[in-house]
Write a structure and sequence with these properties.
Strand order of the largest sheet: 2-1-3-6-7
CATH topology of the largest domain: Rossmann fold
Distance between the termini: 50 Å
CATH superfamily of the largest domain: P-loop containing nucleotide triphosphate hydrolases
Structural class: alpha/beta
Number of helices: 19
Radius of gyration: 23 Å
Largest sheet: 5 strands, parallel
Oligomer: single chain
Length: about 450
């Protein structure tokens, strides 16, 4: 989570949520980021608290006997350009889509992801008051670790930042793909311009075109105002498209045109818009496999894969676990509600030997849960959450042996073809080559 900024504190956010625990959780995340938060349980209470003074409204869709759409209508009648964010459960996504057609700026799926929440809030406030909120991006210092793999990532970020080329970041979920994208932007000449983020896995297919390319007023039923797409918002800056493997196939030619020519065609408009955008994409899915299966355009794949950065899973760079633990504990200690903790040696050893299928994100969440729940100043193995404690630790030697055996067996299966073996293993060819180089000459013959 980014640190609070002086600019953020100038922005007032109204939360309308009838569930006390959910309302307080949202408020806590936003206050830690430096925003001034007003909380209300109902529409009536929201207007009693001077809703007109808010810079942004976040409302639950279902407010007991009321609806967030009723609040949306009243809010837009008073502030037509005031940003409005809707929170909804999976079962009411269609209603949320309808709300966007009525003027809502975006929606979040419950339970709300704090990272997605903060990103949307930043984007919506920046759109309304650019002077209030300058985009904040971490530098290379945010890439924590001491392993050779992390140093290679830093070098790749520096090289990528010096160019205007498209970047494709590959890695499992939770390995820090967005963090790398932000570091590329922050280290580039575009750092003074916006960094706009969109996760394709979180956008309904029916909204992809409008979200990315925008739409003209009257483009479809209830399109009562022009919507600026993410490419236009990122003009002169960087657009980060996460989970590009989920990009709808029928929309890929339109994306390819923007990548090649910088021309955006808003839905329902006869005019093309020229943009200057640096594109960074990320995926946790094997794009080459999607290409061969007809699920992803080959020409778009090669257009995106100009500079490739591969992020290894945490289990393959366990020497980074200790510095990551120390880094996250410092972050958590900045919260006055969390007691400063030390990590017992036996717990640190256990953390270093766990497989961490959720990678860095899982490690960070695990530490936060322990810090919040522990009553002692020292965290021990007994403080591990049950789901983590039940995972079987893998001794370092066993992990290396298992990885080596898996790679050799896969190379044998594909007669030494490194491209096909890397695809089957779910890693990049570059990672496979690095492993083979570390091990020296190996015999893959039967």
């Amino acid at each position: 989570m980014a640190s609070a900024s002086n600019s953020a504190i100038q922005s007032r956010i109204l939360i309308v949520e009838d569930d006390d625990s959910e309302r307080e959780a949202l408020a806590r995340v936003l206050r830690l980021e430096g925003y001034a938060v007003i909380s209300a349980r109902s529409i009536a209470e929201a207007f009693e608290l001077s809703v007109d003074g808010a810079d942004l409204v976040i409302s639950d869709l279902c407010l007991k006997r009321e609806s967030g759409i009723d609040l949306l209508r009243r809010w837009k009648s008073r502030q037509p350009n005031g940003p409005f964010l809707l929170a909804t459960a999976f079962g009411t996504i269609q209603t949320a889509i309808d709300a966007i057609k009525l003027g809502a700026d975006d929606f979040l799926i419950k339970p709300v992801d704090p990272v997605a929440l903060l990103e949307l809030v930043k984007r919506l406030l920046l759109r309304r008051k650019p002077s209030l909120l300058a985009p904040e991006t971490p530098s290379l210092a945010a890439i924590v670790g001491k392993s050779p793999a992390v140093e290679e990532i830093r070098q790749n970020i520096r090289r990528a930042a010096a160019t205007n080329s498209t970047v494709l970041i590959m890695g499992e979920s939770g390995t820090g793909k967005e963090l790398v994208a932000r570091a590329i932007h922050a280290s580039s000449p575009r750092s003074g311009s916006p960094l706009i983020v969109i996760n394709m896995a979180a956008v309904p297919e029916t909204l992809v075109e409008s979200e990315l390319f925008g739409h003209a007023k009257g483009a479809f039923t209830s399109a009562v105002q022009t919507r600026v797409g993410r490419f236009e918002q990122a003009n002169h800056g960087t657009l980060f498209i996460d989970e590009i493997g989920d990009f709808p196939l029928h929309m890929q030619p339109k994306l390819l045109r923007v990548v090649e020519d910088g021309l955006v065609s808003p839905l329902g408009s006869e005019m093309d818009i020229q943009v200057d955008v640096r594109l960074v994409a990320a995926t946790s899915r094997p794009l080459l496999k999607l290409v061969r299966g007809g699920e992803f355009r080959e020409d778009l794949y090669y257009r995106l894969n100009v500079i490739a950065i591969d992020l290894p899973p945490l289990r393959q760079r366990r020497e980074d676990i200790r510095p990551l633990v120390e880094h996250f504990l410092k972050q958590l200690a900045a919260n006055p509600a969390i007691v400063t903790h030390q990590v017992a040696p036996d717990l640190m050893q256990r953390l270093e030997n766990l497989p961490w299928p959720g990678n860095i994100r899982q490690l960070r969440n695990c530490l936060e849960r322990m810090c919040v729940m522990s009553q002692s100043e020292e965290l021990t193995v007994a403080d591990l959450p049950n789901d983590v404690a039940e995972e079987t630790p893998i001794p370092s030697g066993d992990l290396r042996t298992m990885e080596r055996s898996a790679i050799i067996d896969t190379l044998r299966r594909f007669d030494g073809n490194r491209t096909r073996a890397a695809e089957a293993l779910g890693i990049s060819v570059r990672t496979l080559q690095r492993r083979l180089r570390d091990w020296g000459d190996i015999d893959v013959a039967e």
